[in-house]
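Record type: ASSEMBLY
Status: queued
Input:
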Amino acid sequence: MHRIAVVPGSFDPITLGHLDVIGRAAALFDELHVLVVHNPSKSALLPIAQRVALIEQSVTRAQLAGDIRVTSWTVGLLVDYCTDVGATVLVKGIRSQVDVAYETPMAIVNHDLAGVETIFMLPSPEHAHVSSSLVRQVAALGGNIAPYVPPAVADYLRSRDQ
Ligand code: PNS
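Status: finished
Output:
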């Protein structure tokens, strides 16, 4: 059986923690879709197309193994995308109990809606404090985000802000 999984998120921007989870998940599935989803409860730093481009560049530069496809989904439910492409599993990175509390209701609802399973994956502990919102804040205030994001993101934000 050809197993397809989806790693969904805002990815605004992709962080080293995300990239770690993407690499680990890609090793477990035949096909992995990294899906940029608009989250209306968050104010965006980057347009969705730019987030997709930065994920593609980051995956390429990190030379991650596996069949990794990057795309976006802005209409309808996340599970509708899964059904459309034949994906049966969602993979979510979990840094702490706070993430478990945030993700658990979504996992239950996504299973109720379409039978899609959610797998919680632990990133390396060195990434446990990294979040896109922290990166957005440090970048907005002129700090160095290079330790938290793939080089493609650091390069892009540096060139954009010059
Ligand atoms: O990176 P984020 O912002 O924590 O990702 C959250 C995301 C985009 C995965 C979540 O908001 C989501 O799944 N949105 C899709 C809309 C949806 O299907 N909602 C109902 C079931 S949870």
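Annotation: The chain has a mean pLDDT of 96.
Annotation: Residues 8-10, 37, 39, 42, 77-78, 106, 109-110 surround 4'-phosphopantetheine (CB under 6 Å).
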